[in-house]
Amino acid sequence: MRIDGILKKYDRLAIFVDYDGTIVPLKGWEPHKSKPDAELIRIVRELSRIPYVQLTIISGRNFNELNKYFPIKGIFVAGAYGGIIRDRVNKIYYLVSPSSIRYSLSIAKRVILSIIRKQHGFVFEDKLVGFALHYGQAYHGAKDKVFGRISEFFERFALKGDFNLFDWRSSVELVHKAVSKGNGVKYILENLTPPYYYPVYFGDDITDRYALEPINEASGSFFFVGENIESVDEVRAFLKAVIQKYRGTGAYESEQVQLPNEILRKGKTGFKDILKTLLEVQEEEISEREEEGI
Fold first, then answer.
1. CA pair distance 213, 270, nearest whole angstrom
2. Which of 15, 70, 191, 269 is least crowded, fewest Cβ atoms below 10 Å from its Cβ?
3. Among candidates 203, 156, 197, which has minimal Cα distance to 60?
4. Contact between 223 and 200 (Cβ < 8 Å)
5. 125 in helix, strand or coil?
6. Residue 17: strand pairing partners
7. 36-88 pLDDT tens trace
8. Is 183 helix (H, G, I), strand (E, B) or coil?
9. 8 A C-beta contact, residue 20 and residue 217
10. Among candidates 176, 116, 125, which has minimal Cα distance to 150?
């Protein structure tokens, strides 16, 4: 579906947006240092106030970093390639526990850091469930040497089933196979999204391709920057159009009361249903705290 037809046809949207290169411009040879500007924060804050819109910012970025960028209730934040998810009311979901993959991650980290030691122009980024090695400022000779050693490591260790390897836009990424943006999108759509919300995904890099399958399964729309959508500005223009559609209507609230996903997903609207679900959620949270010894 064309992007200009989505708002005409659908009133309830589940919008997924990648971060780097999709809603913020890439920052030279250090893309991991791009931070949200005031306009983007304003857009996200306004979208969080629209009950008919479920916004998810999904990224390979470290979850803790992404969470600090968007401390806004009413939206989803999915960091670590969708492996760690924060919902509308700040409840956290782990699709895979970092501790369960710690062994293979620690080996990979030690090997990569030893490979780039004393090499100039490389920037190492820890993403909790994988790593990125940015090489935009490295000399060609150094690149070839480092790539050769990483490839050798990947062949001997990673291809045994632990990591996916991506070489994309002056960065090499090793991502644990336990997580992907596709798995994150699939989990959110199946467990945390009302079935009548129309899914729309915006991405720009190779890891976003994994989200295409669950979006297609849900009969949604997938937009890739540089292909069927032109730029970061066009993605933001769509988000602004969503806000404009609901501003001044009963669906736009300056102080929206956020209900748990269990209520929204099941479409419960009666007072008794809402009260019952709120009590169930409260009991679950108390049980979780008791198990954790809090």
1. 35
2. 269
3. 203
4. yes
5. strand
6. 57, 202
7. 999 999 999 999 999 999 999 999 988 999 999 999 999 999 999 999 999 99
8. helix
9. no
10. 116
